[in-house]
Amino acid sequence: MAFFCLGGYALVLAAMRIAPVSYVGAARESSVLFAAVLGWALLREGFGLRRLLAAAVIFAGILCLVLAR
User: Within 10 A of 44 (CB to CB), how many other CB atoms are there?
Assistant: First the structure.
């Protein structure tokens, strides 16, 4: 597991050399959305109002960064 964490961190550092930091940060936060959806779909975790609002805020932030370009 530690290998994947180290590999993910290395990928983020490499991406920061290529793209603006704000886009890389937004891409990292999008993984939270994927994890929430996969937890709901595969593990049958609850996807209540609190999680839905948090996912909507993250998505809105990513959308703002994309539209500001």
Answer: 8
